[in-house]
Specification:
The protein has helices spanning about 5, 40-50, 55-70, 100-110, 135-145, 190-195, and strands at about 125, 130, 150-155, 160-165, 175. The protein is an alpha+beta fold and about 200 residues long. Helix 2 crosses helix 3. This is Urocanate hydratase.
Length: about 200
């Protein structure tokens, strides 16, 4: 991806980008050990593949399963953008409202390797503080933001973009919720499992 307009055009699907794997030149998040059952692994794969058309599932399922077993989470390294990740001048972002451009700028600043703790795992701080759960969510949100008007609100749940919904110019441009786990299920073991399934972050 050579420019911001291309970056904001949605998931790159035809053709799929090459899978370069993990960049050895940046720090990476610790390997997680969620100890999923076989059925939970299948659920994690279904949750990851929902972002992609069925004709790509055979290719992506195998590599996503490998990521899950090797790193304890599906980050979708194949979809890590090749554009230099940094905060570009706000006027360079393709958008219909400056509020959306401001969000795109902040997202890319948080994923700048000079800022992020583990940039390829989308972790900006604290070992767990992710901007998104995977790179598909990044692409979809950047696309939604490029299309957003001042009469729409982006709704997100633990990194997953639910979509753009009608709202008012005085409404928030984004509503975000993370975690949503009650105390009885907030142990480290439970968190690792839900994080691996792609349902919490």
């Amino acid at each position: 991806m050579s420019n911001l307009k291309e970056l904001c055009s949605g998931l790159p699907l035809d053709p799929l980008p090459p899978n370069w794997g993990r960049d050895p030149n940046v720090p990476h998040a610790p390997v997680r050990t969620p100890n999923l059952t076989a059925e939970e692994e299948r659920l994690a794969l279904r949750n990851a593949l929902r972002y992609f058309p069925p004709y790509h599932h055979a290719t992506l399922a195998a590599e996503f399963a490998q990521e899950l077993r090797q790193y304890g989470h599906i980050y979708m390294y194949r979809f890590c953008p090749t554009i230099r990740m940094r905060a570009y001048p706000i006027d360079q972002y393709p958008c219909r409202t400056r509020q959306a451009a401001a969000m795109m700028l902040m997202i890319m600043n948080n994923l700048d390797p000079a800022v992020a703790q583990f940039p390829q795992e989308l972790v900006t701080y604290g070992g767990n503080g992710q901007v998104f759960s995977n790179w598909a969510q990044f692409h979809l949100v950047m696309h939604y933001l490029s299309e957003m008007t001042e009469e729409q609100t982006l709704v997100m749940y633990s990194g997953h973009p639910m979509g753009l919904f009608p709202s008012l110019p005085s409404s928030p441009r984004a509503i975000i919720t993370n975690g949503m786990v009650i105390p009885n299920y907030s142990s480290r073991e439970q968190y690792e499992r839900m994080f691996a399934l792609g349902v919490s972050m």
